[in-house]
Amino acid sequence: MRCILIGFATIAAAAAAMTAVPAAAQDTVKIGFAGPMTGPVSAFGHEIERGMDMAVEAINAKGGVRGRKLEVVIRDDEFDPVKTVTAYRELIERQNVVAFVGSANSASMLAVTPLLNDQYKVPTICVHTDATAIIHNQAEASGRDNYLFRLGMFGSGQADFLVDSMVKKFGLTKIGLLTWSAGYGQIGRKELTRRLAELGLKPVADETFETGDTDMTAQLLKMKDAGAQVIMHYGTIKEAVAIFQTRQKLGDPMIPFVSSWGIAVPALWKAAGDLAEGTIDSNVVTTDGPQPPERQAIVEAYHKKYNREFDDPASFFDAYDAVMLFAIAMDKAGFEPPAIRAALEQIPSYRGAGLVVDHPVFTKERHEGYSLEDMLLGRWTNGKFLRVGYDAEGPFVTPSEGIKRHVDPTTFGLK
Amino acid sequence: MSAPILRALALIGLAVLLAVPLFVAGAYFKFLLILVFIYSIVAIGLNILVGYAGQFSLGHAALMAVGAYGSALISISLESIPVLAATGANVWIGMVAGSLAAGIAGTALAFPALRLKGPYLAMVTVAFGWMTWKVLLNWTSLTGGDLGVASIPSMRIGSKTFDIDAYYYFAGGAVAGAFLLQRNLARSDFGRKLRAIKHSEIAAASVGVDVHREKVVVFVLSAVFAGAGGALFAHIENFINPDDFQFYDSVFFLLAVLFGGAGTLIGPLIGAAFLTIAPEILQDAEHYRLIIFGVIILATLYALPNGVAGALLARLRREQEPRPSPRRAASGAPSGSRAPALAAVAQRPILTASGLAKAFGGVRALADVSLALEAGKVHALIGPNGAGKTTLVNILSGYYRPDDGHVAIDGRRIDLHSLHNAAQLGVVRTFQNIRLFGDMTAREHVMVGAELGARASMLDALFNTPRRRREQARREAIADELLALVGLAAHADLAGSTLAYGHRRLLEIARALAASPRALLMDEPAAGLVAGEIEALSTLILQLREQGLAIVLVEHHMDLVMQVSDVVTVLDYGQVIAHGEPAAVQRDPAVIEAYLGGADLRSFTFA
Amino acid sequence: MVFALQIILNGVATGAIYALVAVGYSLTFTGMRVLNFGLGMWVMLGGMLTYTLYVLWGLNIALAAPIVIVALTGLGVICERLTVRPFLKAGSEAWVMATLAVGLLFIDLAELIWGRDPLRVPGYLGQAVVRFGAFALYPQQILIVACTIAVFFGLDFFYYRTLPGRAFRAVAHDPEVAELMGIDARRFAALSYGAACGLGGFAGLMVAPVTLVDPQMGTTLGLKAFVVPILAGLAAPRGILVCGLAYGVLEGLVSGYLFSGVRDILACVLMILILYFRPEGLFGAPSVERI
What we know:
The complex is a heterotrimer.
Chain A: H1 2-18, E1 29-35, H2 42-61, E2 70-76, H3 81-93, E3 99-101, H4 106-120, E4 124-126, H5 132-135, H6 138-141, E5 148-150, H7 155-169, E6 175-180, H8 183-198, E7 205-209, H9 217-226, E8 230-234, H10 237-250, E9 257-259, H11 266-272, E10 280-283, H12 293-306, H13 313-333, H14 337-344, E11 350-351, E12 356-357, E13 376-381, E14 384-391, E15 394-397, E16 405-406
Parallel strand pairs in A: 1-2, 1-3, 3-4, 4-5, 6-7, 6-8, 8-9, 9-10
Antiparallel strand pairs in A: 10-13, 11-12, 13-14, 14-15, 15-16
Chain B: H1 3-23, H2 27-52, H3 60-78, H4 82-87, H5 89-113, H6 118-138, H7 140-143, E1 156-157, E2 160-161, H8 164-186, H9 189-199, H10 201-206, H11 211-237, H12 247-260, H13 267-281, H14 289-303, H15 307-319, E3 349-360, E4 363-374, E5 378-382, H16 389-396, E6 404-409, E7 412-414, H17 419-424, E8 427-429, H18 442-449, H19 458-463, H20 466-486, H21 501-513, E9 519-523, H22 531-546, E10 550-554, H23 558-564, E11 567-572, E12 575-580, H24 582-587, H25 589-596
Parallel strand pairs in B: 5-10, 5-11, 8-9, 9-10
Antiparallel strand pairs in B: 1-2, 3-4, 3-6, 6-7, 11-12
Helix pairs in contact in B: 2-8, 2-11, 2-12, 2-13, 3-5, 3-6, 3-11, 5-11, 9-18, 12-13, 12-15, 18-20, 18-21, 20-21
Chain C: H1 2-32, H2 39-56, H3 61-90, H4 94-114, E1 130-132, E2 135-137, H5 139-161, H6 163-173, H7 175-180, H8 185-207, H9 217-232, H10 237-257, H11 260-277
Helix pairs in contact in C: 1-5, 1-6, 1-8, 1-9, 1-10, 2-3, 2-4, 2-8, 2-9, 3-4, 3-8, 5-6, 6-8, 9-10, 9-11, 10-11
């Protein structure tokens, strides 16, 4: 008996602390983000936070939205779906968040999506999450209001883009798949295989690797034996570097390497150095090479404010754009979440930091902000991620203003 | 902080918890408490294993995962059966099935694992956890891999789906139920048996406890708790993926148990509550949150090695007199009822050893040793140190297997494979270095000793059945009687570790007697006793002899040997060098030489 | 054939890493009957410290290596004093949590100090691939194998041919009797713990050019290297070398002929089977508890 009583006394004390009513609602409008602020992928969490902060600053500098200032509220979910759900509940119920920039973990978003659509009804623009089922969820399937939107890369689209680029633009048909065993890699594998099949092709090799693997000899030897013209990769930096090292060790001819956007970040070059030269990735934006002036202005403001290089430009710009889009929607429809959601589907065009489109950003049927035309391939050239363009001679990159170097499709080397 | 104040606070706390759904509107806080309840259920299961039985597991997150995935997948697949889907029974069936699946997984793990001790056991549980996580991650067709299982149906009764308040009360009820089961277990003989195993597996085995089996049983029970927590988790979250069940989640549960107080009833709840709620409160500290958290944990482990509850209870215990338990005086029933009627077989040896040999590496401990023990006789075994006396006792009690020769009971050759096997056959021993059960009371010691006549099972203990209470009464009667026999009746409620050395010896004997032995092997019982205590021991041995027990007495105290023995066997360097009546052996020159090493001292006799 | 041999060759190189880390577990266990669950973190710290000394400050590797070893040995002794010994004395199981908690703290501190991105450490013998016939290895891999074998021979020599080594073995065997013989058992135990941490750091130093260094690098490596002393026997250093190499080869072959996902599961199953049928390991001696 004594035991029970002590225990409940402790819990009661904690309970009293937790149910304390939060401070009276201020006049700011809150946009929330629950993501990995600590742990191995916290770089993305912080980059998203920076994108949101800079956007909110820019908006508030012009007087806010409908006379009210915006505020960013951040929670750390440690990349754990259970904590994400808890964080979302707290942000909505106690912080009165009216809109979210989505968490950086597909599993987390899959966990909160039913809550957002069925119970809380708060619009969320996802950035940096791949899974199809987040956007194409049950609400969409049953014709109800879908509160989930996405900016940035998404699994199925990216696969289409990568495969189409290699097959149609680079003329390669013998593709070897090398995917990470974790969810991100497996989604990729499924989508890549699907797209290849739609084009009447099959991968000549289909290999996987585990987190933390340092040696890819077996997988790469099998690629060579199968005659792969290109290795198509879905994974993150650490293992990619192992792949590069093993590839170099196995010697010439080195099979060219194309990857999903998981490694299209400056950290790749920091980690791999020259080994990454020639790697081609998909992405939605790059800050290297010639830039449109609006984006250049933001890039310079970033350097000035944070005194650092980008960890992940795509996440930053998508988060920035997300907040901007929310502001546009709020300006039009007010601050009630369902109204914001409806207004998001009504934005006719948008010239933003990352996304630049002359057609509606989102429609009722399409909640993906980016489509294949907005994606790009980039080639790692001397530490820079340069956009790949195409002309009559084939693919090329622009190392600096006015200089054009063509890319050899069979080796990804510069001609 | 005294008991009445705590009581009042706790009642208030209980009322607050019950009323939460009434005055708190949002789901956030309720949801957090539900998580605490769920984690508490897993932690209670782990506490039974770690705190009471003294075992170890860093794989409980994996067992929780089996429960969660099992329940989720089964309820989803049962959804296609209309009658089940309509009543919501698919979820209930799934939850039960998931918990049982976790129990099965626990069995598969426990069998190999629990033969091991300490670090090896830890490693196996880690390996199991890791393997389960890998399977969950890679078997995508079944588990969905990294993207997990979504749209897990919520709990329902008929068409009424549980809302957050319903979940709150259900989870609260579940943890209350788990708590009660734990309490029943702790207060039962099964619980005492577990604690005995924790303190000394060998001593428990010597009185007939099948240690390995009990460890497996308690591990499986612990796994079922974990699975039940997992099943509840799946249907409340509606989404699970392998991220929730990693190595660090197993660490979380173990930490909750240790931090809260292993071996206390309330410890797991305190631990689970703190570890779940504290990070939420520390949200604003961002970067340093995990470091602060880690430091708090380390500091608490350092300052409160018995956990929060352990420290609180120790404080309370010091402020209270030990509650005198209402005991009837020893009924004075004739102690002769303890020993089986032996008149008919008085002459035939109960326990015989023939040609026993045992070597350890290059050391030959025993060579061709034979021995016959008869009921109602005291057979002393003497010899210089290293002669092999304890090795012989170890073989006779089943701890070692002989390299050669055999042991027979009632004339039938038998292969004793363990201490508890020997105890079941009526051979019980005491130890050269006293092995007690820590701070369990003297009465509890002897109650554990009465294991062999047990009629109540773990399930009786869990649900506090009448059979459990009858079993406890039986054991208490035996304990009181035996404690009176050895003269410890007044110390019955004292902790074994607080007893004087001489009393500890007597307690060990009383415990051994509770196992109703036909042959009692005592390894140097007089060591460390003073003259008066040796007298009492001598009287006791003679009493036991009267009752028809066959007694082996390994001893160095020659006066005692001479006083009580009927037969003396002398060992030296693993061989029998003399055998016969005490007086004759005493004068045997070979014996004298073995002890003293020279013919010059032939005039020296044992006083 | 070439396929298999190349895989085996790499497997030996990878296995040497496992063996080098595994010897840390063995050292702690023989010295103190304690399993340092946080050993992977010491490997990580070794790697991080190497990055700072060798890459950021440009020290010669011959100078950086002893600094890393000595620094981490010292830190290990301090940790033993603060986080293991108090719990061992109390007889509670909390030392498990303590070693784990310290490991977690290290990861967080490492993140704060070095950041979260993987960092590159160039090979100590250069980056030029060494080719012989159809096979190829990085010089760093060869260096790792050589160093691992040297470490094992060194330990062997230390344990069996030197007086302090014999003292270590005495303490491992029976600390009380060792004390009676005049050996300060507690100090030796602390030193063996510290030495294990130092060796872990050395493993991190060796491994850094092959994997990238980041705060998480120790976790998986620590877990995987666990398997080796189980297979071989916690108290059998010679066996650990053999089993470590064999394990690396096995991993490679399974990845090559089956698929990578199954690899770790097989390792776990193997570990559980060995623990059941032969808990003292393939090279260990069964121990009998005396009562």
